[in-house]
TrEMBL record:
This is Anti-sigma factor. Residues 211-232 are annotated as: Disordered. Residues 97-224 form the Anti-sigma K factor RskA C-terminal domain. InterPro entries: Anti-sigma-K/W_factor (IPR051474), RskA_C (IPR018764).
């Protein structure tokens, strides 16, 4: 297999960073990384794009039922007498954060992988846009679409300097025909978009600058500052 091919290296790196490359395939790629600069560069590029998304996931406190199941797994059935150190409140308080982190990791690992991997699109500045250089230089986004095509998270890699009275609007662009609006998005934090069949008849995603409140015509009216094509 020719790992110097950019599209192959990029696809493997994306699945590796997302965690959807597993088992023997993941171990093989890790073995190959030191000998293949193109693979290393692709992995670094995807890590730079995707790792910041982790900061947007809100923490979730475990419920009492989760604590009960966890203690049962660690220390046996509830009817069995607990040792004195298991009942100490300071122990629970001191280890609460570590246990919650381990619990979240355990739940994540126990969930079977989705039937389809998420689709990740890196959106780059549209150099042909009639927009200011400061805005274009920061018009970089990562769009992640769930495997079932029902949810999209759009994250700017840099905060965009928008003028007052202006907004950003996300568009799904078909191979033929007019783009359809997916709503307003933020220029300084992640935005979640929930729509049915986000990827149907979609060849690319685009972000345009519109009046505050969005396009008044149902089509892009301002400069399209960022575009990302779906790979087929």
């Amino acid at each position: 297999m020719d790992y110097s091919r950019p599209r192959l290296a990029d696809r493997l790196a994306a699945n590796y960073v997302l965690g959807t490359l597993r088992g023997a395939a993941r171990r093989r790629l890790e073995t190959l990384l030191p000998a293949h600069p193109s693979l290393r560069q692709a992995v670094n590029r995807w890590q730079d794009a995707l790792v910041p998304l982790a900061s947007t996931v809100p923490p979730v406190a475990p419920t009492a039922a989760v604590w009960t199941r966890l203690e049962t797994r660690l220390f046996g059935a509830a009817e069995a007498p607990l040792s004195w150190w298991q009942r100490l409140l300071p122990w629970r308080a001191a280890t609460g954060v570590a246990t919650a982190a381990a619990l979240v990791m355990g739940v994540a690992l126990s969930i079977p992988p989705p039937a389809q991997s998420p689709v990740v699109i890196v959106m780059s500045p549209n150099e042909a846009a009639a927009a200011g250089p400061a805005l274009l230089s920061k018009a970089k986004f990562v769009a992640s679409v769930s495997g079932d095509g029902r949810a999209l998270v759009l994250k700017p890699l840099d905060a965009l300097p928008l003028d007052a009275g202006r907004a950003l609007e996300l568009w799904a662009v078909p191979a033929q025909g007019a783009p359809r609006s997916l709503g307003l998005v933020a220029g300084d934090h992640s935005t979640q978009v929930l729509r049915a069949k986000l990827l149907k008849d979609t060849a690319a995603f685009a972000v345009s600058v519109e009046p505050d409140g969005g396009s008044p015509t149902g089509a892009p009216t301002g400069p399209i500052i960022s575009v990302g094509k779906l790979e087929t």
